[in-house]
């Protein structure tokens, strides 16, 4: 398969799987300029927060934006005076933009958040009170792994790594979907096999428990 054929195949996959929203368009680099700006600005803010305090980053960033707005406003005013035009305020479009949150959308998001919070609290209760021994052991292994991750990285470093992964992994997966799905299927089958053996070996929730019930 030639290079042109591979490009045509990737273009066809983009057509078959269009992004469902602006966020997916950014992380899949549908518009490289917009994605590059979003990635660069977000990464710059996170790196700045890792070096300076939150107050310093917010105040300096706000001052930078405000200074740019003032300079552009003065420039447009001088330009209108020289050219004797009546274009009006350069930010008129944005000043008239409605920023109020719709109540229905807020209620919808709140209801969705409450559902997820209740489900998460219920799941944590089952894990900590060992309703299923295998699930609790998996949770314990995950917590044990997090202790090492916390020792190696701080919260902001994890956010930076997560941002880099967000803007790279989806694109890598899209370009190598077949190979990744194949390898993930093999790994998933191995994990399921090990889990089933572990479940069968444990007296709670396994075959031993079912045999005791039959007796």
The termini sit apart by: 63 Å
Low-pLDDT windows of residues: 6-17, 205-215
Q: Largest sheet, if any?
A: none
Q: Total strand count, please?
A: 0
Q: What's the gyration radius in Å?
A: 27 Å
Q: Report the order of strands and helices.
A: HHHHHHHHHH
Strand pairing plus helix content: what structural class?
mainly alpha
Helix content: over 70%
Shape: elongated
Overall residue-averaged pLDDT value: 83
Q: Helical segment tally? A: 10
Percentage beta strand: under 5%
Description:
The protein is mostly helical and 215 residues long. It has ten helices and no strands. The chain has helices spanning 3-16, 22-27, 32-51, 54-83, 92-95, 103-128, 133-152, 155-175, 177-201, 207-214. The N and C termini lie far apart (63 Å). Residues 6-17 and 205-215 have low confidence and may be disordered.
